[in-house]
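LOG
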Amino acid sequence: MLWAALLPDSLPAEPQPRTEALDGLATWCLQFTPRVAVLEALLSCPAVVMEVEQSVRLFGGKRRLVERVREECPDLGVRQLSWAPTSLAALAVARAGLSNGFAKPLAPLLDALPLETLTSVAAHQATLARLGCRTLGQVRALPRGGLSRRFDAQLLATLDQAYGLRPETYPWAQLPETFRVRLELMARVEHAPAMLFGARRLMLQMAGWLMARRSGVTAFTLRWCHDAMRARTAGDGGELTVRTAQATRDTEHLMHLLAEHLGKVELLAPVGDLELRAVEVQSLEEKSLSMLPEARQSGESLALVLERIAARLGPDRVLRPVILEDHRLEWMCRWRPAPEPAPRARCRTVDVPQPTFILPKPLRLATQANRPIYQGVLQLLAGPHRVEGGWWDRTVEEGGGRHPGDGPQETTRQASRDYWVAVSEHAGVLWIFQMRLAQDETAWFLHGTFA
């Protein structure tokens, strides 16, 4: 078996915040395995243990799994990470300041450790010291009958479990349905960007929770509580909600967005506590692992870059095109703020030629013998393609009445056109249309060009 033990660096003195901090660390561990337990939460040196033997292959082997846990756990406030064949052995090795519980056979490794590494043994340290016992091996060498009569049954049970002679059972941690975790800062923070250090620890816990649920977040809220010694006008605290266009659990991208938003926040009082909450969570489609090698994408995707720039400049200053189902060429595309979620509905493809560029406003063309002219007489190649619609698209225009000085009038963007593909000797291939005017008159307009 492969067990990992994680010792947190510092924990609050109060039982409830102390338990919440350990539960947050256990939630992060649930992304690796469902067999996660919190040991001795209210004692001086608690720990979180997880059994990852069944997850080794999933994460690409033991070495890669160990490297991943080792790289991420320091940001969660873990001061010691150790591995061993049993959970109590991993805990004892961690408390001894070691990391590799597989460097030696389990029995010789544990025999050399001091009594303080196992809580049930350390509880009888004074009596065992008078018997000349300083290490776990010396206690284990004592007659079992005498140990069972003089000490409680927990001492022998702990030793047997640590040495792998008795099975270990724990109340396993459960994955919560919602994510909401708090953190008491080690020092009061007076500037909003300085909250990123504590927010990163909470963000990693949220990423672990999302991975365990195979989900991503589209909105999360960071709330901060002001110090008790604050001005009355400062209030209890504040909060900031960050939204993304696509569901993600990429910690670095979420931290970039949070940093851009916090750069615009001005704190009214020093901050002592942080709280992170996942507001909108969606199932995330996992990528299929192929037997054949696939081309790796380097760098960030365009959507992630746009979201980060929009967080810095403002959502209304970074726009992206969104294709809509509309046969009117000028209304097929809408420019929406980049952070807004993209519509899920896919537009049907149009089976007629579409120009590469369109004019901001159609240009009326002159005619010669009822033939349009644009840098010479145009030759019609394909058409007509009738586009008629827009009666539902209502808008309000200033001075839309029949008489000068009339106020705003509601009109529609009704369009009734016959589109043609035309060619000009000098201008190339064009996209033109003919429409009916008043009194049975017609007119030709240039609307776009083909590259």
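LOG (cont.) second protein
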Amino acid sequence: MTPITEVEGRRISLSNLEKVIYPASGFTKGEVLHYYAGTAGALLAHLVDRPLSFLRYPDGPDGQRFFTKNVLPGTPEWVRTAEVPRSEGPTRQILVQDLASLMWAANLVTEFHTPQWRAGAPGQADRLVLDLDPGPPATVVECCRAALWLRERLTADGFPVYAKTSGSKGLHLLVPLEPTPSERVSAYAKSLAVEAEKELPDLVVHRMTRSLRPGKVFVDFSQNAAAKTTAAPYTLRARAEPTASTPVTWAEIEACEEPDRLVFTADDIAPRLRTHGDLLGPLINLNNARPLPARAAR
């Protein structure tokens, strides 16, 4: 019999709680759900009002994975959705607004990915993201070097800059913005990536071309496009271990000399929240939002 639990007055069916999702560590689906319940206070702040894309991996990272943006069959009627414009016509996507909808979605075993804009203003980005992706043999150590240069560059334009691990191999840099058309944010982000490559030619590349990337950090600016999404803070990833996309301090980035220093799993997050709070909390404080610099306005 499938267990039924009640969360905030909503009845949710939870299935296969003993199923091992992460074979390398024996981490089960029940532990995945426990992680999300314990992290909800921080995670929900970064999911609310953002139409979600799901990367599902119900049989673990070595099983079938599938990416979906549309409302899933069997979605409870109480889970909120939002109309989202697309080139082929509007569709609806899921909003995770509360603990009940988070636990329902987590039961699907999914990575949570969000756009840089909110449901009420599609295509009006309220944050900028730079995805620093290392090409082997480069690692997150090289990403940290690139991140420090980009932080200085963004600070010169008047922005506060925040960072998190991707939960995979790299880093994400995030900047809070006054709502700005995504195409303008994308153009500005591209200019930063091009400038970084010019200043750090032995470290950075701004093009996705595979032959250019070995040993370098690809500064991916494309996730600022209105149709693109980025792994949400605190989401678990479909990796060998239950790694989480984890906010980090600039001191941690400056001190990173070994890749393992910036690998965090589900078990690390609660202690970090107790120590640091939500390091990305300032992203959702409207007082921290800044406009693009005047030269990027066109």
